[in-house]
Design a protein that fits this description.
- There is one protein chain.
- The chain is an alpha/beta fold and about 500 residues long.
- It has one domain: Alpha-Beta Complex (Amidase signature (AS) enzymes).
- It contains 19 helices and 11 strands.
- Helix 3 packs antiparallel against helix 4 and helix 8 packs antiparallel against helix 18.
């Protein structure tokens, strides 16, 4: 299988090809590694990885043999994935982009990694990410991994902390990317890299084994070149985990996600509202907004009824600005929980031990939260959590009023920034702050700098089946993924 065929195939199509012996996991891994070797370093220098898995080909061979003898484990059998370097992997270091964690070896996999491996997925490598705790050198994404480039424009940032994961997937280094976000760190990189992405209802996917700042807002999710692969990833890892209490919420909804893949091609007629609150003013946003509006207008041609001009009546950008840093007040408790439940060769006991050891290496901005009074933090956290829950209810009531399946709006209507050290970009944390699931879909490119623009589809709690089905319809009729010019098909170069 050449890389042109590989990159344009869904996980389902790859599975069928392997079942029919037209290709193999070994061939797929080899082809992806050829692309990594061609574009990860050298003149292009995407630099999406902190660590590559040297055993990937060996694992692929073993999975090929297993498939031959016993059949495939799941849709993910033999499929290479990229993992953000915040998820514990017992066979690869987990660095968080933080120099003191450069050689941190966890004793067990994160729950999502366990599930993905059990399904037969191959972790091709751990992706570069912004320094989770420290201050990276100027122009670098992390002190450990350096700078990751955006393959659509090598001078632009690939995005927030999941930028390495998104750059790897858009460059064609693997089929599926596992990412995480507290605010916008899945959706921003997906937007900047012309990808599809899904962030779930909190509680659908376990965060055990994920280094996180917030028990409430932190989510694991996926980025991919197509919607089908997002559904495969979600179906494979969703569900209850005793080590993440938030997943108790998912038990009663288990039936919604057991056949998520089979539900994305529904013929349902959807009703979708355009949320004007999330439209920004100014010349910088005009072209991006135009691309999103064009996408919305096309979508209504394909059994999607559009209700224009909806508003919550709130100044949402101001509200979101006030609430988005809720996670900082949860940081200490989140780290206490992580170090208590996740053992490594560093033997860090809790957040106090972490602070004592690495105080000189930490970002100054997080020190007050790690040193803050427990009762004050608890009071602020409860207040902010109440406010975020109320905001989610406001959004849901708006959807109820108009009998909507989802809301749409520009996720980010301005181009990615040229400098890599990112001030806050004009994207939005609505989904993470209000606790509602969302899907990102590509909306096109700006004319001046070929910067991807994205639309967000926001749904109801546990509404992922409808969101992915909407995104699937959008992908089939409005816009599909396109390969970056900087990382062309190797097969075409060799032809």
């Amino acid at each position: 299988m050449n890389d042109l065929e590989l990159l344009n195939a869904s996980i389902y199509e790859l599975g069928v090809a392997m079942d029919n012996k037209l290709t193999s996991a070994t061939d797929i891994v080899s082809t992806y590694l050829q692309r990594v070797n061609a574009y990860e370093g050298g003149e292009v220098g995407i630099n999406a990885f902190i660590t590559l898995n040297s055993n990937a080909l060996t694992l692929a061979g073993a999975l090929d043999e297993e498939r031959e003898r016993y059949g495939r484990r799941s849709l993910l059998h033999g499929i290479p994935i990229v993992v953000k370097d915040l998820f514990n992997t017992k066979d690869l270091p987990t660095t968080a982009g933080f120099i003191p964690f450069r050689y941190m070896q966890c004793h067990e996999d994160a729950t999502v990694i366990e599930k993905l491996k059990h399904a037969g997925a191959i972790v091709l490598g751990k992706s570069n990410m912004s320094d989770w705790f420290g201050v990276a050198p100027q122009g670098m994404q992390s002190a450990v991994g350096g700078r990751t480039k955006n393959p659509y424009n090598l001078n632009l940032t690939p995005g927030r902390s999941s930028g390495g994961t998104a750059a790897a997937i858009s460059s064609g280094f693997a089929s599926l990317g596992l990412a995480s976000e507290t605010g916008v760190s899945i959706r921003n990189p997906a937007s900047n890299n012309n990808l599809f992405a899904v962030v779930p209802t909190p509680g659908l996917i376990s965060r055990h084994g994920l280094i996180m700042n917030s028990h409430v807002m932190e989510r694991a999710g996926f980025v991919s070149r197509n919607v089908y692969d997002l559904a495969v990833g979600m179906q494979s890892v969703s569900g209850y985990d005793a080590r993440d209490s938030l997943t108790r919420r998912s038990v009663a909804r288990r039936h919604l996600f057991e056949n998520l893949v089979g539900s994305i091609d529904t013929k349902k007629i959807f009703k979708v509202g355009v949320l004007t609150d999330m439209y920004r003013d100014g010349n910088l946003h005009r072209e991006g907004i135009g691309l999103v509006n064009e996408a919305i207008n096309k979508l209504q041609l394909y059994d999607v009824n559009i209700v224009h001009g909806l508003s919550t009546g709130l100044d949402l950008f101001t509200v979101l600005s006030e609430l988005r840093d809720l996670n900082m007040y949860e940081m200490r408790d989140a780290l206490d929980n992580y170090f208590k439940l996740n053992k490594s060769n560093l033997q860090i006991r809790d957040s106090s031990d972490f602070l004592t050891r690495y105080q000189d290496d930490l970002k100054p901005g997080i020190l007050p939260y790690l040193n803050s009074d427990s009762s004050m933090v608890s009071s602020i956290r409860k207040k902010r959590w109440r406010q975020t829950h109320e905001l989610g209810n406001v959004i849901t009531r708006l959807m109820d009023l108009h009998n909507l399946d989802a809301l749409v709006y520009p996720f980010k209507s301005e181009p990615a920034l040229s400098e890599h050290v990112i001030p806050r970009e004009s994207d939005n944390p609505l989904s993470s702050v209000c606790g509602l699931p969302a899907v990102i879909v590509p909306a096109g490119f700006t004319s001046a700098d070929n910067a991807p623009i994205a639309m967000e589809i926001l749904g109801r709690r546990w509404g992922e089946p409808d969101l992915l089905a909407l995104a699937r319809r959008y992908e089939r009729h409005v816009r599909r993924w396109t390969l970056p010019v900087s990382t062309p098909y190797l097969s075409s170069l060799l032809a």
